[in-house]
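In the design runs reported in the main text, the only information available to the sequence generator was the tokenized backbone. The following block is the verbatim input for one such run; it is reproduced so that readers can re-run the procedure and compare outputs position by position.
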């Protein structure tokens, strides 16, 4: 598995947008994203720095690999 750097919630949202995810709305400090034909929703905290564990879980639920995600950044 590739190495993940600390990134912000805003950077993560930009990468998921490039992967075809759409912003559906916001609940508190979390941005909710969906993708057609995907069962999962992504709830991305809008913090200055996301923990690596949180980011790995988001990448896993999105159906991407860590390398694919890193290429989208």
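Verbatim output:
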């Amino acid at each position: 598995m590739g190495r993940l750097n600390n990134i912000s919630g805003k950077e993560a949202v930009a990468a998921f947008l490039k992967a075809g995810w759409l912003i559906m709305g916001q609940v508190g400090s979390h941005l909710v994203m969906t993708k057609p034909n995907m069962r999962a929703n992504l709830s991305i905290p809008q913090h200055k720095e996301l923990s690596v564990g949180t980011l790995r879980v988001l990448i896993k639920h999105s159906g991407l690999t860590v390398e694919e995600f890193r290429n989208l950044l």
